[in-house]
Write a structure and sequence with these properties.
This protein is mainly α. The chain has one domain. It has 4 helices and no strands. It is rod-shaped and about 70 Å long.
């Protein structure tokens, strides 16, 4: 009985010692998404996509990260909206870069085949 009572007291003390979560904590910026600034997607879109679109993705990714760092102490909706806007633009440019590259890879052989087909009719 004494051991059980001792364990209960220790658990209760441990619960009392835990700090309460602060109402003004800045976890809302990290809740936007797991990779909030899409840095990895931007780098992959430069390597595995059209580089000009990938560079735009990286540009917005850097803007999102720098805005979050610069304004991390401000708890206002405008800050969250700016970071969210830059993050969404980085994601769109990154995905667009990879999709455009895949479309070009698929269309190029079709265009070459169509060109040879047209040339045979000309002769």
């Amino acid at each position: 009985m004494c051991a059980n009572e001792l364990k209960e007291v220790k658990v209760e003390d441990a619960l009392l010692e835990q700090p309460e979560p602060r109402a003004d904590s800045h976890h809302h910026l990290s809740d936007i998404c797991k990779d909030a600034d899409h840095r990895k997607l931007a780098i992959c879109s430069i390597i595995c996509g059209l580089s000009c679109f990938g560079i735009m993705s990286l540009k917005y990714s850097v803007k999102a990260r720098e805005t979050r760092k610069r304004l991390q102490n401000e708890d206002c909706p405008e800050t969250r909206e700016m970071v969210k806007k830059y993050s969404e633009k980085a994601c769109k440019w990154g995905i667009g870069s990879i999709v455009a590259w895949v479309v070009l890879i698929l269309i190029f052989p079709l265009l070459v085949g169509f060109l040879s087909y047209v040339v045979t009719f000309i002769d």
